[in-house]
Amino acid sequence: MSAIAAPSVPARRVNVEPLPVRWLLIGLALLFLVGFLFLPLAVVFGQAFSKGWSVYWAALVEPNALAAIRLTLTAALIAVPLNMVFGLAAAWSIAKFEFPGKSLLITLIDLPFSVSPVVSGLIYVLLFGLHGWLGPWLHEHDIQLIFAVPGIVLATIFVTFPFVARELIPLMQSQGTEEEEAAMVLGASGWQTFWHVTLPNVKWGLLYGVILCNARAMGEFGAVSVVSGHIRGLTNTIPLHVEILYNEYNTAAAFAVASLLAMLALVTLAAKTALEWRLKQQATQSTPLA
Question: Which sign does the torsion angle of CA 255, 39, 223, 212 carry?
Fold first, then answer.
């Protein structure tokens, strides 16, 4: 009997869009970037320097502006390290261990993404305000959280705590537990395994999460606006100070201070791009050749 030849399978053709369609899509993307990114940035810096360098510099060194900058940096310097520790602990627990309430913990980590920042700030007022649940007790012990720096720090921590954890959880899950188990078999303790195996493997993802967390901490408006009280020189962060200047029709000073946040966004974008490139290079180097 002669062998029956198997029917040939035609080669799969890669779907390539016509050149006009590709140019149209690229043009729409560029138009979107110009309209919603580059043009607003140009307006911010153009308005900031519209009255000259002296007016720009005077707006930045004005006492209330300096107080807002200091408060913003203080809140970020407290919130970011705390969220880094929480993110590492939560990601390590979720990715490496099984325990009751694991799904609940993952849900709670995503809570700030689903709750409006204004609502979260209002919750802090209802909890710690003078007429809130804990307000009378705090007042009796001369502890002020709302309309003070501690309330701003608490609100900042709440709206930023998912960023580090959300970057590390999928990264640690993809890496598995083989390396940690090998280190434990070789006699390493839990902390030695964490410092010498787990942490080096996630250092770039950790730095990526910290950058995003810091950007959100410095630019947060909604939650901080509710708990701050808008006290000049005391509880105004940079975004709140910009709002006050703009409402007073001090446009040049408002855009001058806003340019600080714009520069922070540009630096964050550059750092984010550099880290993405570094992670891609690391993934390429670690991929075995076929």
Answer: negative
